[in-house]
Amino acid sequence: MTKPIHTSDTRCFKRIWLSMGGSIQTVTGTGEARYAHPFFIDTVRANDRRKDVPAVLLSRINQLIKARDTH
């Protein structure tokens, strides 16, 4: 079983998110980004200027890890 991700480093999180099949789209003119993944129906819109990772994104990536480990 893989341990949950508890990173606050945005660059590390983005690298993991993209490697797990997610996508990141910049929302023009707002400083925000939209995080999408085929596993989830809805996307997460988060402030891309923040240096830490929002809890909702950490929760999403840990759900992906858990789902991957059960299959």
Explain how this protein is built.
The structure is a single chain. With 71 residues, the chain is of the alpha+beta class. The protein has one domain (10-70): Metal Transport, Frataxin, Chain A (2-Layer Sandwich), CATH 3.30.920. The protein contains two helices and three strands; from the N terminus they run H-E-E-E-H. It has a three-stranded antiparallel β-sheet with strand order 1-2-3, covered by helices on one side. A hairpin with a 4-residue loop joins strand 1 (23-27) and strand 2. The longest helix has 16 residues, at 55-70. It is globular and about 40 Å long.
What labels would you give this structure?
alpha+beta; 2 helices; globular; 37% helix; 71 residues; 3 strands; Metal Transport, Frataxin, Chain A
- Strands ordered across the widest β-sheet: 1-2-3
Strand portion, in percent? 15-25%
Mean pLDDT: 88
Q: Please bin the fraction of helical residues.
A: 25-40%
Backbone shape: globular
CATH uppermost class: Alpha Beta
CATH topology: Metal Transport, Frataxin, Chain A
How many structural domains? 1
- What kind of sheet is the major sheet? 3 strands, antiparallel
Number of helical regions: 2
Order of helices and strands: HEEEH
- Distance, first to last CA: 11 Å
- Name of the CATH architecture: 2-Layer Sandwich
Radius of gyration (CA) equals 12 Å
Offer a quick outline of the entry.
By secondary structure, the protein is of the alpha+beta class.
Topology readout:
Elements: H1 10-19, E1 23-27, E2 32-36, E3 44-47, H2 55-70
Antiparallel strand pairs: 1-2, 2-3
